[in-house]
Amino acid sequence: MRIHKDVISGIVILLFCAVGALSTSQLPPPSAEEWAGPSTLPYITLGATALCGVLLVITGIARRNADRASRSFNLDPKVLAFYVFWVCYMAAMVWLGDLISGMNRLGMPHNGGFIVATLLFLLVALPVLGRRKPLEIICVAVGTTGILVLAFGGFFQILLP
User: Fold this and answer.
1) Would the keyword Membrane turn up in this protein's UniProt record (predicted)?
2) What is the mean pLDDT of the chain?
3) Does residue 107 carry a pLDDT above 90?
4) What is the 3-state secondary structure (H, E, C) of 123-143?
5) Cβ neighbours of residue 79 under 8 Å, at least 6 residues apart?
């Protein structure tokens, strides 16, 4: 019996959520005056993502009696490339953050690794996902990076890698 691709995708998502929860558990808890700390937003997003993973597993199990074409696991090279690139982005963000913070000459903020890695990730990922207009790609990459830095660095006062 072949496993439905939704079940496989859901299990992979749940594994990523488990790794994320393990990593997030190492963040400091909120202080006595705060109800939300540095781990609150990651736990919320991991919970929502895990819920989506569970829904994928349930959907895949419900579809197991569907036709053979939908049960086979066809690996799309674009999707695989995107996920590999996403994992590399996560590692590069931390690595660049450590590298930039160690270089006092650059004068970049503490969010330097996040800024550089996210900008490069979006500039490469958007064309992989089907966007073709260069101006749109640049505007979305710069705008998204800027909004995230302002939201987390400015509003939430969270230092990004």
Assistant:
1) yes
2) 82
3) no
4) HHHHHHCCCCCHHHHHHHHHH
5) none
Q: Which three-class secondary structure state does DSSP give residue 32?
A: coil
- Give the structural domain span for 117: 77-155
**Inside any domain, residue 55:** yes
Are 57 and 101 part of one and the same domain? no
Residue 51 shares a structural domain with residue 87 = no
Angle between helices 134-149 and 112-128 (to 10 degrees): 150
Mark residue 76 as left, alpha or beta (left: phi above 0; alpha: psi -120 to 50; beta: remaining).
Answer: beta
Q: What's the structural domain count of the chain? A: 2
Regarding whether 106 and 58 lie in a shared domain, the answer is no
* Nearest alpha carbon to residue 13 among 66, 62, 55: 55
Q: What is the pTM of this model?
A: 0.57
